[in-house]
Design a protein that fits this description.
Blueprint: E1 11-16, E2 19-20, E3 26-27, E4 30-36, H1 54-60, E5 64-67, E6 74-77, E7 82-87
Antiparallel strand pairs: 1-4, 1-7, 2-3, 4-5, 5-6
Length: 89
């Protein structure tokens, strides 16, 4: 899927494709519910030990920045791993 297909602030049911780890293990497909956040920038992203360099922020913008509605945890999803996404809110 393309990043432009997602609306910031909306919640989606997302099916993540199965994928192979570098060691050859297969991680099975799974479904997640996530809120889409605005792309990473220097004000909304940081490492545990300090600010994120601009070049890292730039590379993160190839990913969808999402939040788990239940836990509040924020993480990145690569759009090529998303098989299907359905807007639920």
């Amino acid at each position: 899927m393309d990043l432009s297909e997602f609306e910031v602030g909306s919640i989606y049911r997302i099916k993540i494709a199965a994928w192979e780890t570098p060691t050859g293990d297969i991680v099975p497909a799974e479904e997640k519910v996530r809120r889409v956040l605005e792309p990473a920038n220097c004000t909304n992203s940081a490492f545990d030990d300090g600010p994120v360099p601009d070049q890292v922020i730039e590379s993160w913008n190839a990913f969808l920045r999402v939040q788990c509605p239940d836990s509040g945890k924020v993480h990145l999803l690569h759009p090529e791993t998303i098989e299907v996404a359905e807007k639920v809110m």
